[in-house]
Amino acid sequence: MFVLTDSYRYFWPVTVLIPNPDRPGQTIEQSFDIEFEAIPLEEAEV
User: Fold this and answer.
1) Domain extents for the chain?
2) Cα atoms found within 13 Å of the Cα of residue 14, Cβ hemisphere only
3) Can you point out the beta strands (E) in 1-46?
């Protein structure tokens, strides 16, 4: 069901690689969902 709101927000899956603190030269993969909010073009840095 769609609901009208004042702002448009959405979740996007993200995967990042961070340095492994225990094993130099290796990385750890972490995944999570991040929430974005659309902003007017006037507010965006273009």
Assistant:
1) 9-38
2) 11
3) 9-19, 27-37
- Average pLDDT of adjacent 10-residue blocks, the chain of 46 residues: 86 97 97 94 82
Read off the tokens for 22.
Answer: 């225990």
**Under a CB-based contact definition with an 8 Å cutoff, are residues 33 and 12 in contact?**
yes
How many other β-carbons are positioned within 10 Å of the β-carbon of residue 20?
11
d(CA 17, CA 29) in angstroms, rounded, equals 5
Which pLDDT score, from 0 to 100, does residue 46 have? 66
DSSP for residue 23? S
